[in-house]
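Our collaborator T.R. sent over the components below with a one-line note: 'Predict the complex.' Nothing else. No constraints on interfaces, no templates requested, no preferences about which chain binds where. So this is a plain run: every listed entity goes in together, and whatever single assembly comes back becomes the starting point for the next discussion.
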Amino acid sequence: MTGLAAPALPARYRVAGRCAETQDTVTLDLRPVDQAIPELLPGQFTMLYAPGIGEVPVSVSGVSPGGGLVQTVRAVGAVTRALCAAGPGQLIGVRGPFGTNWDVTSAQGGDLAVVAGGIGLAPLRGALRAALARRGRYRRIVALIGARSPGELVFAGELDDWRDAGAEVHVTVDRAVAGWTGHVGVVTQLIDRAEIDPGATTALVCGPEVMMRLAARELLARGIPAGRIRVSLERNMLCGMAECGHCQLGPLLLCRDGPVVSYDVAGPLLAIREL
Amino acid sequence: MTPDRGEAPAPDVTMLATHAFLRGMPPEAVALLARSCRASTVPAGRRFFEEGEAATRFWLLRGGHVALEVHSPGDRRLIVETLGRGDLLGLSWLLPPYQWQFGALAIADTAAFEFDGEAVLAGCDADPSLGYHLLRRFLSAASGRLQSARIRMLDLYATPTEAGAGP
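Returned assembly:
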């Protein structure tokens, strides 16, 4: 796909694999049928089209050789329910990639703190894996993950792999169940306990907006400057090309200027109730 | 203020002052606290206290992992929150009815500074400056717990709508 039509035209992808992460969340392994969409970076998103139903923005959790995409979808409406139900062989339309990325390489030489809440871990997975693939270029890599309950933790099967690759991974849940021996409490409490060097830390934060604001507040309190805190924002992304204006947040069109936004820019905007 | 138990010496004041809870406290206040304190270690599986028991002490955790629990019928225990390094364990010793509102179980070997609540209260009565510095910190810890509880009540990770963008 080339030219102006490319971002507007869905490329055909086939579901090659499907992994149920939780009761309502599925990770799809998508492979291009024709030409793949352009190469993307962790933090960017695509528009996924369920034929005959509709299109939704979905962050990218990873890539696979040959232009494959790993995308995690939570069933919360008609389109996402259809995507979650898609089995191997089913065709899905993909537009993108869109938006800004985590710019994880800029954290090299210092500590990297990843703070995720709920399915917010999905867009951070790619950044974490990219950093772990070049582990020697970072000092500490710390992943602080919050989930509603142990059963609602996404990528639970990968946490030990990340630990083995050199990350400190801490998980906390809002509600424990019998047998849970991990943390219980909000993810922001883990920030206070994390062993990081605030003066040399880049923090990547994704989750519900309230959680991101609280996490950013805690990171700022630890001494990490706003310019080294990045959050992933969401509004009504529709066109993905900064044309329709549905994803406007103040001066930003988040499909182009986001989803990843530095907190020195995002913080003041998130403080405005009307936005 | 005197150490409540003879078997363990009061910890080094400098070491005590480095605990996150006491950071910034005037050295003379830390020195007074140290006289009511001992270093303690609680192995995994052992309880600090049970819900409903008399609350007479508090701990500043130096490492490990502690679960605050309530019990429900059938001796099922529900974890309210977990605490770790840098945290305060124990608020009920400070206010009537001086009974633990939750139980506390070490779920990993846990090291702490353990304080005799009665001696600390007596010290605060004798020196209001110590009481001021200490109560500010307890209020800060209680405020943090309250905020965390409120955030969890919001159930932020519950099902969102589809209108927004991914994830």
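Summary for T.R.: The first strand of chain B starts at residue 37 and ends at 42.
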